[in-house]
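User: Hello! My lab partner asked me to get a predicted holo structure for this protein. The small molecule is pyridoxal-5'-phosphate, SMILES included with the sequence. Please write out the structure tokens.
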Amino acid sequence: MMIDLNTLTQRHETYKKQALNLDMTRGQPSDENFDLSNPMMTIVDKGDAITSSGVALRNYGGGIYGLAEARELCASILRVRLEETLVGNNASMEIMSHVFALGLLRGLKDSPQPWGKSAAKIIVTVPGYDRHFHMLDTLGYELVTVGIDESGPNLDEVERLAGSDPDIKGIYFVPTYSNPTGDTISDENVKRLASLKAAAPDFTIFADDAYAVHHLTDQPSVPLNILEACKAAENPDRAYLFGSTSKVTLAGAGLGFMGTSEANLAYMGKLFNALTIGPNKIEQYRHVKFLTQYEGGVSGLMRHHAQILKPKFGAVQRVLSEELGDKDLATWADPKGGYFVNLDTKHPVADRVVALAKEIGVALTPAGATYPFGKDPNNSNIRIAPTRPPLAEVEDAMRVLALCIELASAEHLNA
Ligand SMILES: Cc1ncc(COP(=O)(O)O)c(C=O)c1O
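Assistant: Hello! Below are the structure tokens for the protein in complex with pyridoxal-5'-phosphate.
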């Protein structure tokens, strides 16, 4: 049952006096998570100037695709082969933006002409990741939105749109534990994407697998292998996968990487080679040494990350259930991995909730950030990012969020 507006307003005023200062905006690892990778800071020294496989780390050379050992490591995260993998520098966003920019300027391998010669459009899923939207828009792509649910992108919509519009050059989405909904694409939807009859001959799947190994339970969500599905559907060059170690090792000094067919990689490698002599090999070797020496490798490290993250995700569920469970004012996801909890208010009050929380001193991701141009048509979506703050702060912030949802909803119903 909902409490009356006056009581809720008073509770909000009382909270304000506490002068909280909590930041729930950032989908970043906590320092405790980073501490797991501290050995990386010093793991490489002058004794590694020549790697065990004979590559001189300090000089140019070694090629555009990255160190073989790093390619092997990152290939295993994307579940592709070394020969299908390019490892770059820090941040997958950089590699993704190169591929999208080169698509416009030069086209992809089988493009009849550079995508920039016509009004190139990319399908994106909503709610989604603001940096995807911002990058595509800044480069000059038109964004076409489709919904996402527990099976992944709405494939009926994707098939309808991509099947009829040759300007739609691809779909950009997060296959595993999507930001922010936590959804993983179903096997059926992977097959449909791989075999989709697109109007554009060079329609491409851009799968940002940022959370491929970021499981929070003992039953990992692992989607059907997208590259393999494309090969099986006789569209072997249709997909590009991306990933990074930003939330595996160090967000400020990780590795970004890409997995695609060998033919695509040869094409892109040539273009990348015109832009740079090669990636930072010392950073790559640092990762190879650290992650191969870590007990259990990448999976072992991710289990330790999960031990730190699980109580925070648990606190979100517990507090929201306690405060809002019986009030029919919001629904929220209980993700099995990734970095976010997606919440939708029943009434169109997301912007008011965020503003009310700010008055108390709790910063939430801006309302609308999960939609292109910051415009959530329903004004209902709120992305909760529980990973960075300490556990106690997550709990406090969730109580504030719940109160602000109640208050904003009461205001709306009383208006
Ligand atoms: C879906 C998704 N892709 C990419 C990134 C950023 O990755 P990177 O640090 O590798 O650029 C994030 C970070 O929040 C993300 O959620």
